[in-house]
C-alpha cells in the first residue's frame, strides 16, 4: 500500500461513508468500525450512485468504496465519488486479492489509496488516517520472502544470458512454492511460463514494473481452504519487484550482446557473430554428420565505387548486397559481413540433403545464381540510373568436412578459392577444388 495521510484528530467530529453492496463490503467489518471508532458517524450506501447522492446531501470526511469487478464503469464511478466528496475528503478503495489490478487502475481516477482485504485493524487505521478510540491488538502480517527463498531466487540468475525462458520457469516454480499456491504463472511480453496447475482464473496478481513501463504480470490461482492474506500479497509484490529487476538486466545484456555481434551498416552478423554461429553449426554437424558449405565473397572493384560516388554510396551498396542475400537464402543459412566489402554465407541443412545423391555445394550454387540474377536487375539510387546492374561479385566455396573441419579453416580455404576467382577475371564463383 502507498503512504498514508497523517492521523486525524479523533476528538474532531467526523463522518465516514461506506459505499458498496454487502458482498463487497462485509457488514461485520462496518460493525467493527463502529465499535472501534464510537465517536464518529458511519453510514452506508449500497451502490455507487447511492454513494454519490448521499455525498451531495451530507458530505463525509472519509469515503470507503468496495470494488465490484462486475461493474462496467468502475473508473467513472470512482471519479464521480471523488467529485461529490470534494478534494478534502479521503477516498479509499477496498478489494479482494483477485480484484487488485482493477482497484489499482480505478484508484487513478481519484482515490487516495486502496487496500486488500482481509486487512489488520492497524492497517485499516493507518489507511483511513485515524487512531482508534479503543486500543486494539494487531495481527502481524505474513513474513516476506525468507533468506532461503531469496538464495534460491539468486541461483536463477545464471539463466539470464542465454535462457530467459528457463529463468521464467524457475521463477514461477519458486513463487508457487513460496506462497503454497496450486499454480503460478508469469507473463512477459507474450511469453508465458507456468508451474503447477494452470492459472485460468488468477486471484492474486502483481505487475512486473520497471521505470515508466509494465513488462508483464505475476499471478497465482486460488488456494482452496486457505485464503491468501495481506502478507501473501506483499510477498508476491516482493517477488514481482525482484523479477522485474532481473528481466531489465537480462534485456540490457541481450541488447549489448546483439550490438557486439552485429554489423552497424548492413545489420548482418559481423565477423565475431559469424564465428560464433559457424562454430555452433560445425559442432552440430560433427555430431549429426551433415555437410556445411561456406561462401566467402567480395565486391569486384569496390574501391572504384567509393572513389567515384563517395563512401555513402559504398554503404548503400553494402546494404543492398546484404538485403539481396537475405531474400535469396534459406531461413537457416547465415549471412554475415566479414569486413570492408567481404561477406560470408554459411549454407547448411540440419535435416540432411533433400534429394538422395545431391551434393551440398550445388545448393549453394543454386542460391548464388538466384542472387546474381537479382543483382543484375537491382537499382542502387546512389550510383545513378546509368550504373544499374554494374555491381558484380567474386567468391569461393569450401565444404565441411572435406575441405576443412574448423570455422577458421573453412573461411581460409574459401578465401583461397576467392583469390582464384579474382585471378580468373572476377564476376565468378570458384569451388575450392578448382583452386588447387
Q: Would you write up a description of this structure?
A:
The chain has helices spanning about 25-35, 50-55, 75-85, 100-105, 120-130, 145-155, 165-180, 230-260, 270-290, 300-310, 310-330, 360-375, 405-425, and strands at about 15-20, 40-45, 60-65, 90-95, 115, 185-190, 190-195, 205-210, 215-220, 290-300, 335-340, 340-350, 395-400, 430. The protein has about 425 residues and is of the alpha/beta class. It folds into 3 domains: about 15-130, Rossmann fold, CATH 3.40.50; about 145-260, Beta-Lactamase, CATH 3.30.450.40; about 270-435, Alpha-Beta Plaits. A 5-stranded parallel beta sheet has the order 2-1-3-4-5, sandwiched between helices. The longest helix is centred in the middle third of the chain and has 31 residues, at about 230-260. The chain is elongated, with a radius of gyration of 34 Å. About 35% of the residues are buried.
Amino acid at each position: 500500500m502507498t503512504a498514508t495521510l497523517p492521523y486525524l484528530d479523533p476528538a474532531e467530529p467526523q463522518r465516514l461513508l461506506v459505499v458498496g453492496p454487502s458482498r463487497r463490503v462485509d457488514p461485520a467489518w462496518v460493525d467493527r468500525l463502529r465499535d472501534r471508532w464510537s465517536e464518529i458517524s458511519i453510514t452506508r450506501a449500497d451502490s455507487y450512485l447511492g454513494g454519490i447522492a448521499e455525498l451531495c446531501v451530507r458530505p463525509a470526511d472519509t469515503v470507503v468504496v468496495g470494488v465490484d469487478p462486475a461493474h462496467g464503469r468502475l473508473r467513472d464511478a470512482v471519479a464521480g465519488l471523488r467529485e461529490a466528496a470534494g478534494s478534502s475528503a479521503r477516498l479509499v478503495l477496498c478489494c479482494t486479492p483477485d480484484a487488485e489490478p482493477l482497484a489499482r487502475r480505478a484508484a487513478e481516477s481519484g482515490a487516495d489509496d486502496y487496500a486488500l482485504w482481509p486487512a489488520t485493524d492497524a492497517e485499516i487505521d493507518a489507511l483511513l488516517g485515524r487512531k482508534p478510540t479503543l486500543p486494539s491488538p494487531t495481527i502481524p502480517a505474513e513474513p516476506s520472502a525468507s533468506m532461503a527463498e531469496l538464495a534460491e531466487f539468486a541461483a536463477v540468475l545464471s539463466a539470464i544470458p542465454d535462457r530467459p525462458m528457463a529463468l521464467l520457469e524457475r521463477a514461477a516454480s519458486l513463487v508457487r512454492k513460496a506462497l503454497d499456491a496450486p499454480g503460478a504463472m508469469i507473463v512477459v511480453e507474450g511469453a508465458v511460463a507456468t508451474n503447477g496447475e494452470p492459472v485460468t482464473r488468477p486471484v492474486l496478481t502483481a505487475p512486473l514494473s520497471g521505470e515508466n513501463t509494465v513488462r508483464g504480470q505475476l499471478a497465482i490461482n486460488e488456494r482452496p481452504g486457505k485464503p491468501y492474506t495481506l502478507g501473501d500479497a506483499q510477498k508476491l509484490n516482493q517477488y514481482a519487484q525482484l523479477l522485474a529487476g532481473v528481466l531489465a538486466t537480462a534485456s540490457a545484456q541481450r541488447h549489448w550482446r546483439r550490438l557486439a555481434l552485429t554489423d552497424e551498416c548492413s545489420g548482418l552478423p559481423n565477423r565475431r557473430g559469424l564465428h560464433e554461429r559457424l562454430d555452433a553449426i560445425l559442432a552440430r554437424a560433427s555430431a549429426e554428420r551433415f555437410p556445411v558449405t561456406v561462401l566467402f565473397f567480395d565486391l569486384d572493384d569496390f574501391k572504384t565505387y567509393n572513389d567515384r560516388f563517395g563512401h555513402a554510396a559504398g554503404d548503400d551498396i553494402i546494404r543492398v548486397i546484404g538485403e539481396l542475400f537475405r531474400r535469396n537464402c534459406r531461413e537457416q543459412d547465415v549471412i554475415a559481413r566479414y569486413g570492408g566489402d567481404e561477406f560470408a554465407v554459411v549454407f547448411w541443412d540440419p535435416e540432411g540433403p533433400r534429394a538422395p545423391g545431391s551434393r551440398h555445394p550445388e545448393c549453394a550454387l543454386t542460391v548464388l545464381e538466384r542472387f546474381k540474377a537479382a543483382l543484375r536487375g537491382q537499382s542502387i539510387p546512389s550510383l545513378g540510373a546509368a550504373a544499374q546492374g554494374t555491381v558484380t561479385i567474386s567468391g569461393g566455396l569450401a565444404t565441411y568436412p572435406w575441405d576443412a573441419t574448423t570455422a577458421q579453416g573453412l573461411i581460409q580455404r574459401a578465401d583461397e578459392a576467392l583469390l582464384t576467382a579474382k585471378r580468373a577475371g572476377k564476376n565468378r564463383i570458384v569451388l575450392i577444388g578448382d583452386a588447387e
